[in-house]
TrEMBL record:
Domain Acyl-CoA dehydrogenase/oxidase N-terminal intervals: 7-118
Every Acyl-CoA dehydrogenase/oxidase C-terminal domain range: 235-383
Protein name from the UniProt record: Acyl-CoA dehydrogenase
Keyword Nucleotide-binding: no
Keywords in alphabetical order: Branched-chain amino acid catabolism, FAD, Flavoprotein, Oxidoreductase
GO terms of biological process kind: branched-chain amino acid catabolic process
Species annotation: Actinacidiphila rubida
Length: 385
């Protein structure tokens, strides 16, 4: 079926991104995998291409687009080529909505031009050791100084994507203790300069997949954060996080669908080329049935993603809608990628093949942004259960 979710502008952008990936990423991607991260200089190229500024208002150097579909195109094209843009997806997909929604005009003038160019890379620090999905259980604190000029930040965060290269990190911290009535109370957001004394980037985490995405532990020891870098209102951080979660989960669903579609593409090319017992693997009935079943599942995931993208652009994507899309698409991708790897035989287990990297990269989709179990809880609550 013909997709109607994209228009001519999206498709022209797709051609640009595809050509950029072929020229700037594919030839050096093995080097990125070996290094465990994309080089910092690569983000300047993304800035020059305009990828970081698509949804940034024109007065701050961006294109002023409101549609999230351009980011969807980037996800699809990266998956198609079996590559990634490192930790930059957090920069645009997770961090930008907070800045555009809650920053003052003065803050936007300070931060967004660098954001667009890639000179100032953003990350967001929510998760803490021992808390996982329980964000209300965070212990990182930010206490206002006696003279009221700055906050003193103390604590630690983990699993921070983009944490190694980040120049500014949106840190979630407690400015007041939780109350018996509301564990979510007292959380605020700060845009922290990573060059601040007392700010430490710990070890770069060695992950199962997403090898080119720099993921780190962060620590804060009496880090002084100017009051001018408080994002939004003090104490409203948890509500801010909740408002952006549907987009984050849509992005994960979208990425999972794109990975599954790419897995079919890789498997089909492999089985049509690979010969066993004097016949191509594609000629066996089992191969045809397996790929046909995979395609049917991916077609369904595509429909879910496209509907969610349209709803998001209309500002109608609810938390339950996003949870449902994430749950369905990530589970589909897990099944499809596993079956496509199986069709590769032993070669599917080799990291030199894109299907092996997809298999490892895909696994986290059912964990971050809220686990599948959390998604089920959200959906069940929306059903009145």
């Amino acid at each position: 079926m013909r997709r109607t979710v994209y228009n001519e502008d999206h498709e022209a952008f797709r051609e640009t991104i595809r050509a950029f990936i072929e020229a700037e990423v594919v030839p050096v991607y093995d080097q990125w995998l070996e290094a465990g991260q994309a080089p910092r200089e690569f983000y300047y190229k993304l800035g020059e291409l305009g990828v970081f500024g698509i949804e940034v208002p024109e007065e701050f150097g961006g294109a002023g687009e409101e549609s999230f579909k351009f980011q969807a195109v980037v996800s699809e094209e990266c998956a198609r080529a079996g590559v990634s843009f490192g930790g930059s997806s957090v920069h645009t997909g997770l961090c930008l909505p907070y800045v555009t929604a809650y920053a003052t005009d003065e803050q936007k003038k300070r931060w967004l031009p660098g954001f667009v160019s890639g000179v100032t890379m953003f990350a967001i620090a929510m998760t803490e050791p021992g808390t996982g999905s329980d964000l209300a259980g965070m212990k990182t604190s930010a206490k206002l100084s006696e003279d009221g000029t700055h906050y003193v930040l103390n604590g630690a965060k983990t699993f921070i994507t983009g944490g190694v290269h980040a120049d500014r990190v949106i840190v979630c911290a407690r400015t007041a203790p939780a109350t018996a009535e509301d564990r979510r109370a007292g959380i605020s957001l700060f845009v922290v300069d990573t060059k601040s004394p007392g700010y430490t980037v710990g070890r770069k985490l060695d992950k199962l997949g997403l090898k080119t995405s720099d993921t780190a532990e962060l620590a804060f020891s009496d880090v002084e954060v100017p009051v001018e870098d408080l994002l939004g209102e003090e104490g409203k951080g948890f509500s801010y996080l909740g408002q952006n979660l549907p987009q984050e989960r849509l992005a994960i669903a979208m990425g999972a669908y794109a990975q599954a579609a790419a897995a079919i593409r890789f498997a089909q090319a492999y089985v049509q080329d690979r010969t066993v017992f004097g016949k191509t693997v594609a000629s066996f009935q089992n191969t045809k049935f397996e790929l046909a079943a995979c395609k049917a599942e991916v077609d369904a995931a595509e429909a879910v993603v496209d509907r969610a993208l349209d709803a998001h652009d209309r500002h109608e994507l609810s938390a339950a809608d996003a949870a449902s899309a994430k749950l369905f698409c990530t589970e589909v991708a897990a099944r499809v990628i596993d079956r496509c790897l199986q069709l590769h035989g032993g070669y599917g287990y080799m990291n030199e093949y894109p299907i092996a990297r997809l298999y490892a990269d895909n696994r986290v989709n059912r964990i971050y942004g809220g686990t599948s179990e959390v998604m089920k809880s959200i959906i069940a609550k929306s059903m009145g259960l």
